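Practice problem: predict the structure.
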Amino acid sequence: MQFESIIRSFLQTVSEGKGAAFKSGQIFYGKLGKLFSGQYAEIRLGSHKLMAKLEAPLVSGKGYWFQVSYQSGEMTLKVLDKEHKSFNTMKSPLSPQLLGLRDTKLNHKFTEFLMDEQLRFTKEEVQKGARFLSTVDDAEAAMQVLKMVSKKQLPVTDSIFKSLYAITKETTPLSSSIGQLRQLLLAQETHSETAKSLLNLLENWDMTVNLLEKGGADSFGREVFLAKMKQSLSMLGLNYEAELFHNQVNKETIGTLFKPLIVKLVQENSALMNASIQEAAENLLLRMNGQHLLSISNHTFQTHLYEIPIQLGSLLKDFTIQWTGRKTDNGQFDPDYCHIMFYLDLENLNSTIVNMQVQNRIVHVLIINDWHEIKAQAQSFIPILQAGLEELNYSLSGVHFKTGDNRNKQMSRHPFSNHTSFDTGVDIRV
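Answer:
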């Protein structure tokens, strides 16, 4: 299963719960419910309802475009179109010009998408979104990105859109993209100081991997794997901005991390750097920023997404982690209740999913793979798994296997598409 499909599904299923308060100037499409005296009415947005004062009398049961304003702290809704077709059809004959857009086929599609998804944007944000759509080759993916921006209440800016769109459309493994940048840098005769530091980092990265390989002998043990993952995650420097803000990392260390060096390389735009290097560096930066933007955190749960290049034996793979978990009272991840999914593309077993659910430290494992012998071959490893979990104070309730159509159904969906509440979870893909 490709990283692109995971991200697309994530964008489609994230943050389906109730949104934050409405902001003045926002436009949305809703169905008029019950009418009350004083021009108050119940407005329905999907499964959610709100009470607001209307500026003009309307017909109960019909759908309208509304614009939000506040008077003395009270929300008032202005109707943008009284002649709109019934909400039940969910097909908009409305001209995009009502939202300040040109009357084009793409803008009609965008207007309908805003209505179908009942998203809330200001007119200015709608116009920015339309401009985004006109610059990309996949309008459907771009609209899902705009949905994500709305649900997460992110600013509608070029940098945020480009970062999320880049990670949505990306099909090349991160390890391959980093390797491509390295080859481009090596092919250039002269380098800036930043480029030299970046090349040195990549060489040290490989050297550390080789040392870990030797330390692991012929086996690939848990400690070796964890060491590789931590080393790669540390050298990527994905969270260096937050760590710097909280004084958790010094400026000298930042100069040895991958992401801050990429940021500096892009900002330099040096005459010593050719266009191919600039483009490769910019794409990598957008991709890493996109991962950061996909992280979610509130007072009850947190989700973090990482894509980490790591050496598995003789193969360089991308280790993709989506970490979602309920928070404890002190704000830490709760390991007693979680959902873990491993996406593996292995040399012999090919595409494999390991779906692990933990409830009150009781672990259930589902393995999805097309190899008909996998269940029989895995039996000898189950007692080892059980013993390892018991050492960590977990209990194994069972290991089950699925193949064929069941696998395809599971593979086609993001692991959290069945868990829109996002109570807990950890996703891992190699």
